[in-house]
Amino acid sequence: MKPIEIIGVDVSYGAKKILEEISFHVDKGEILGIIGPNGSGKTTLLRAMSRVVARDRGEILLDSHDLDTLGHRELARRVAVVPQDISIGFDYTVRDVVMMGRHPHIGRLASETARDVEICERAMRLANVAHLAGASVHDISGGERQRVLIARALAQEPEILLLDEATSNLDVSHQVEILNIIRDLAGGIAVVSVFHDLNLAAYYCDRLLLLKDRKVYATGAPADVLTCENIREIFGMETLVRPHPLTGRPYVLPVYTKTTGAGVNRRVHLVCGGGTGSDILYLLRAAGFTVTCGVLNVLDTDYGTAVHLGIPVVAEPPFHGITTASLAAVREWLDRADAIVVTAMPIGPGNLDNIRVLLDYPEKPLFLYSGNGSVRMEDCTGGEADKVLAEIEARGAVRVGGAEVLITLLSQQQIGRE
Ligand SMILES: Nc1ncnc2c1ncn2[C@@H]1O[C@H](COP(=O)(O)OP(=O)(O)OP(=O)(O)O)[C@@H](O)[C@H]1O
């Protein structure tokens, strides 16, 4: 039996269709995250699940019972909602508001029991609002009020918890604190939460449901839903999506650059390593350049970026020097490149050949690039790398400190060594 199951649900406001053919379920112990652009119907979906809005068609089942057949009290015992709108009409104290979470459990004429008080106190402690118990809800901050409403939902001891961006007003430490509480709580209940922060959604949710144009666009494990392609399609935004180094869950890094097309029909070969090339790999790609890269170690961050972006890259296994075959492959790309970019990377005996080979291309435009402005290679070869770099510079390589300048220089029709 599923705590909550939605089957073919449509919802409209008047003549305006908001949701169409929505189907999904949530298991006990699971957190389902709802994501999607503004106005895609996330709040409306939660409203339909808590019977605040009626559906045009379809079924919503709580433990196999039709939502519409439950009495108000029964519904309130089973489903708690933390809304997006955190305004509270009357001048209640924090304790009063949290105690409201117990009302569905307290009989019509009965008064609160010691157990109700204990649950209420515990909910306030968990949501970190116990110190505000006697304060008016009008005299506390927006984030504190949001935590009060979370405490009220916890006091309700629901089977299903619906959260509408419930942590959006909280500072980062309270966000994490509350979401950790909800995750612990989710062991025994089903949680459905709207998220705007994709990384929080990826971290805390077992599954995600992505809404677009009234319908479910994608659903599944965070890694299956939060792909670059889906994010581009839904939010029109370029991102790098990587496994989080600690959790392995997807981590979304927005790239705040517009695609310019400045590099169309121009080839650039990038020599990088140690993560020094990841930003420029992306930016070159976004600007439309045909990019090649290498030689890299397969454990290198830049290798991961190149593969992720579909950029051809020559790579070697770890603890392996650059082989003749790899160097030959890179030479083919260097021959065809309109320009070469070398990032400010650490150079050791293992990758020295990456820059030594450049001495064979004295006529190719060559840029020594560093994102932070100080073009400084770290020489781990006992001086050999510095010698090669000095030679490259003497032949007219251009030092560039900023990505925009580099892209502009690379996209000029006539680029050449000074
Ligand atoms: N009470 C209402 N009457 C009419 N239209 C409404 C009402 N509430 C919301 N809408 C419309 O329904 C659509 C979906 O709104 P909803 O709030 O569900 O989206 P959302 O995905 O939660 O958005 P956001 O990310 O901005 O919170 C929007 O076009 C909105 O303007």
TrEMBL record:
Residues 4-238 form the ABC transporter domain. Keywords: ATP-binding, Nucleotide-binding, Translocase, Transport. The keyword Translocase applies. It is an enzyme of class 7 (translocase). Gene3D superfamilies: P-loop containing nucleotide triphosphate hydrolases. It catalyses: an R-cob(III)alamin(out) + ATP + H2O = an R-cob(III)alamin(in) + ADP + phosphate + H(+). The keyword Endoplasmic reticulum does not apply. It comes from the Archaea. SUPFAM superfamilies: P-loop containing nucleoside triphosphate hydrolases. GO terms for molecular function: ABC-type vitamin B12 transporter activity; ATP binding; ATP hydrolysis activity. InterPro entries: AAA+_ATPase, ABC_transporter-like_ATP-bd, ABC_transporter-like_CS, P-loop_NTPase. Its EC number is 7.6.2.8. PANTHER family: HEMIN IMPORT ATP-BINDING PROTEIN HMUV. Required for corrinoid utilization. Probably part of the ABC transporter complex BtuCDF involved in cobalamin (vitamin B12) import. Probably responsible for energy coupling to the transport system. This is Cobalamin import ATP-binding protein BtuD.
